Amino acid sequence: MATITTAALVARCQALFDDISFGAARQWKAAAPGRKVVAYMPIYVPREIIHAAGMLPLGILGAGESLEVIHGDAYYQSYICRIPRSTLDLGITGRLDFVDGFLFPSICDVIRNLSGIWKILFPEVYVRYFDVPQNFDPEVGGTFYRHELQELREGLARLAGSPISDDALRASFALYNRNRRLVRELYAFRAEAPWRVPASELYLVQRAGMVLPVEEHNQLLADYLAAARAEERPRRDNCRVVLNGVFCEQPPLSLIKAIEMSGCYVVDDDFMLVNRWLLEDLPVSGDPIAALATAFLGGSTETGAKYQPRRELKGRYILDAVRASAAEGVIFAAPSFCDPALLERPMLEAVLDRVDVPHIGFKYAENSAQMQPVREQAGTFADSIKLWSAP
Amino acid sequence: MTASAPSHRSPVPVREVVKEASMVKQKEMIARNYDLLTSTAEHGRKVASTFVPGNLNELIMCFDMLNNLPEINAIQNGMRKLSGDYIAEAEKRGHSEDVCTYVKADLGMIAKGNVSPNGKPLPRPDLLLLSYTGCFTFMKWFELLREEYKCPTVMLHVPYQGDGETTKNMRDYIVKQLRQEVIPALERVSGVKFDIDRLRGYLRESARAEDDLVWVLESAKNKPAPIDAYFGGVYYIGPIFTAFRGTPDATEYYRLLRSEITERIRLGLGPITPEGDMKSQKYRLVVEGPPNWTSFREFWKMFYDDGAVVVASSYTKVGGTYDLGFRHDPDHPLESLADYCMGVYTNRNLPQRIDLLEKYMDEYQADGLLINSIKSCNSFSAGQLMIMREVEKRTGKPAAFIETDLVDPRYFSAANVKNRLESYFQMIDQKRGSAPSAA
């Protein structure tokens, strides 16, 4: 019998989510002398290397809806998405003044160029644009990526002040393997009984993993799973949907709730893919850098930011997600001006159309305030699925 | 990312200008290439579609293939006032209003018959050669084209200069992709065996033309500047950025151009504009960002009417930064192609871009920096306000910011742009104490 309720756990996650000064990460850093924090942006960085260096990986996904962006707007035109401007605002207002390093992964031109801005504005911070291969041949892209990983390892070791041993990496792999297993378990449980894991709760529990040490997040995930399994909740007559396109700039929490309140159970999504990027456990023996490279090349998630070399497989992942989660439709929600999500969408829609999976799409910004249109659109979508897709 | 030479249609009434030999030459080259592209059924040559930044023209020629550049088609359609309809067509088919208008103009063009500027349909490419250089959208663009054409696709992933440098690992990665992926794909599609000596020959030819191109671009250091390095510059980069790099035609074009500009310098003449020689040069500008194509002539006129000449631009470096010393090297052919790809302007990080613009401001004795920020192009645009601040801070010269788009006519507001430019020119006047310094 679980002793902690989902409500208590979610309240803790909500507090972490609301705190855009990152108090938990600050406390972690202050708890022992010499501790360092390395921030990263979506979608994927190998957090294991940061952890193995004794540093805290800190996921930055913009500032959400609570921060009034003032400084960031002076750096970005109106036709660029919101996540770089609110992230910059976090930096300029000192909310990230405890961050010692910042990794900007290869996802799009906006995040790529933000790495250069960060280098200029915060010269004291270790800044690295983290490139990943779009060629998945182990001899070609794999060799390149192993070198990149090794360079990252050396850079982080310099920041940490000591080398990162293979054993330390393997120990971190074990912790993150457990994290990924728990996240997979949570997603599987949600797909099985979505009324017992509301989308907004799963989101907050995942999001906590952006700011907590992996050891604490593992405990949180285990506690939440136990509590969710122990608690009965009313089951609604909702349809089951996959939510796609939310892998970088985040929608407001109210939008996630609005989708659910409109009659849609979210049974799969692409929130915080860093938690689910690697699909299998990393081996805890052998060459750890080679293991990270192999896992990336052959066993990582597909998104709009990743090239699919085989045309016949393009977009199949959305169909796989629909089938694996027994979804009845897909909601494409993309941040305004998000190239990877918006350019990907027509290809995914075509895949769904070929097998008559219904879908709708809309755009948002992290500070979108009007939820009525989303409720109406998602509600109509849910009604249409119930009316027309019933056997 | 370049314009074809002269035959323009424009709302701006202009008198006919006498064409110089280089203009005639370029026009012939482009017309011939479109004729070749639209007659593949007769001659049977295979076609590779590819991009300007990271263009591997010499390699493509090694396989007797033709080079078709969707960016150039989009530009052509922008200048011929066709892109608006094409973009609308793509949006009607579900493409977001938020994404790159080159992509949508291309997809809309395909949907409406894929008609080339010579009035004949372009062929389906035999290979999509995705040189993923300096712009993330390229990757998505060719994934979308692959759905249209269902033809073989090969990617060349070029790592970004995140730390402001190229490394051996990055170069090795590109060379390995060329050897193991790109060249075998070209061989398969063309049926022609790769001959590295043939490649060396083309690269040797490229380097000759590159020498003259750099001379041409740097001629704007003269006062008066004999060229406009942005509006005129897009014509000058045409051959070398597109299907002609490595050909004797390109070498001949740049030789002609160089001799014409030598003569202009001797005579103390300014650039040729659509309305004849530019008479007065009151403002020397460095421009960052691509031009607007749908109102190109109108846009240019706003500059030369007020005596503003562009002496250096970043846009003329998207197909290679030859003025920083790079030359294609026949002794290291594949490595040289790798270095070329990594060096294009948009593959350089923001601090490098700022350094380059500062250098231009200094070396070309510019009065200011103007940024033309393009709604469609995150690769260029994200970070440009930072660039503006930094260049202003380092040089003490005024900078200004205007916003347009590549080929979407909805995002060119002539009155707004003109207003901003006029205010900017006044600002420059004030800054230098109302004493025009340019020639």
Structural class assignment of chain A: alpha/beta
- Helix % of chain A is 40-55%
Name the quaternary structure.
Answer: heterodimer
- Report strand order across the widest sheet of chain A: 2-1-3-4
Structural description of this entry:
The complex is a heterodimer of chains A (391) and B (439). Chain A has 391 residues and is of the alpha/beta class. Chain A contains 14 helices and 8 strands. In chain A, the strands form 2 sheets. In chain A, strands 2-1-3-4 form a 4-stranded parallel β-sheet, sandwiched between helices. A 4-stranded parallel β-sheet of chain A has the order 6-5-7-8. In chain A, strand 5, helix 10 (253-261) and strand 6 form a beta-alpha-beta unit. The two termini of chain A are 39 Å apart. Chain B folds into 2 domains: 21-195, Rossmann fold (3-Layer(aba) Sandwich); 200-431, Rossmann fold. Chain B contains 18 helices and 10 strands. In chain B, strands 2-1-3-4 form a 4-stranded parallel β-sheet, with helices on both faces. A 4-stranded parallel β-sheet of chain B has the order 8-7-9-10, sandwiched between helices. Chain B has a two-stranded antiparallel ribbon with strand order 5-6. In chain B, helix 7 (137-149) links the parallel strand 3 and strand 4 (153-157). The longest helix of chain B has 23 residues, at 168-190. Chain B starts with 20 loop residues before the first helix and ends in an 8-residue tail after the last helix. At the A-B interface, helix 5, strand 4, helix 6 and helix 13 of A face helix 7, strand 4, helix 8, helix 15 and helix 16 of B.
Summarize it.
The complex is a heterodimer of chains A (391) and B (439). Chain A has 391 residues and is α/β, with parallel strands linked by helices. Chain A contains 14 helices and eight strands.
List the topology elements.
The complex is a heterodimer of chains A (391) and B (439).
Chain A: H1 6-18, H2 23-30, E1 37-40, H3 47-52, E2 56-59, H4 83-92, E3 101-105, H5 109-121, E4 126-130, H6 138-160, H7 166-192, H8 199-208, H9 214-230, E5 239-244, H10 253-261, E6 264-269, H11 288-298, H12 316-324, E7 329-335, H13 339-354, E8 359-364, H14 372-388
Parallel strand pairs in A: 1-2, 1-3, 3-4, 5-6, 5-7, 7-8
Helix pairs in contact in A: 1-8, 6-11, 7-9, 10-14
Chain B: H1 21-37, H2 40-43, E1 47-49, H3 57-61, E2 66-68, H4 70-79, H5 83-92, H6 101-111, E3 127-132, H7 137-149, E4 153-157, H8 168-190, H9 196-218, H10 233-236, H11 238-241, H12 248-267, E5 272-273, E6 276-277, E7 283-288, H13 296-304, E8 308-313, H14 333-343, H15 350-363, E9 368-374, H16 378-381, H17 384-395, E10 399-404, H18 414-431
Parallel strand pairs in B: 1-2, 1-3, 3-4, 7-8, 7-9, 9-10
Antiparallel strand pairs in B: 5-6
